[in-house]
Structure prediction request, 321 residues.
Amino acid sequence: MIKAGIIGGAGYTAGELTRILVNHPQVALDFIYSTSSAGKPVYAIHQDLVGETEITFSSKVNTNVDVVFLCLGHGNSKKFLEETEFSKSTKIIDLSTDFRKTEPSHSFIYGLPELNRRKIESAEFIANPGCFATAINLALLPLAYAGLLKEDVHVNAVTGATGAGTSFSGFTHFAWRDNNFSSYKAFEHQHLSEIGQSVLQLQENFDHKINFIPNRGNFSRGIHCTTYTSFEGELEDAVGIYKMFYANAAFTHVVEEELHLKQVVNTNKCLVRVQKFDDKILITTVLDNLLKGASGQAVQNMNLMFGLEESTGLKLKANYF
Prediction:
């Protein structure tokens, strides 16, 4: 059994990780560390876990676990690792932005399986991708692989309220979010750097802009993303490129019908639809921001790191109605 620990246990991503790991056939959840909830049963915060686990939040960290998931706020993972020394055999999966930008100063692998599967299988440290970045990367990477990103890319995506985390703000308050819609961080969202990095990994000569408008939706979870750019070929050519690129992907599927969030919420799937309009290609992607966009993908990476079947513990079903 893989002995696992979670750091920062009270947030949304940690709650999703706990739900997956307590039912994972190859994992024993050793501890869930939380400074704000130490001593409380986990189900006191993640209330749907009543009857699923009796584990309590811990004020101590076991530095000898096989794998640790860092579910800390952006900027805090790096600081935590500077203050806490895990055993040399402990694998680390970070869900923050701290290590997503590839640098010579660290050995973290960018954990998008559709891009870096072989590297992930032998990695010790994983930087789990951002939720918007996952949706946009999965829309663009097949074209980048084929060298067909030849002009600016335009992206419009909507995320649910859980994308902002559990910290309260004026933009997460129910009275503001309900029956409302807004955009934010236009053209300067923090996920743009990791998206550009991934595209350049497959198409080194890409030198155009990725224009990204993120939006807040009045729903709890999910991302609906539309991406378009120029494309000279036929629709059949484009669909063939996407189906070939994702032929062996465990959770990314190319479909022909119109997409909506109920197909993917509460699953680790990303669905992709390709359309052609005149000289433009439109790629629609949908995923659950807390699962394929965060915790589900983190477990997907863990499975690869430990030589397990990639989908182990992740056969989750959408709540369609």
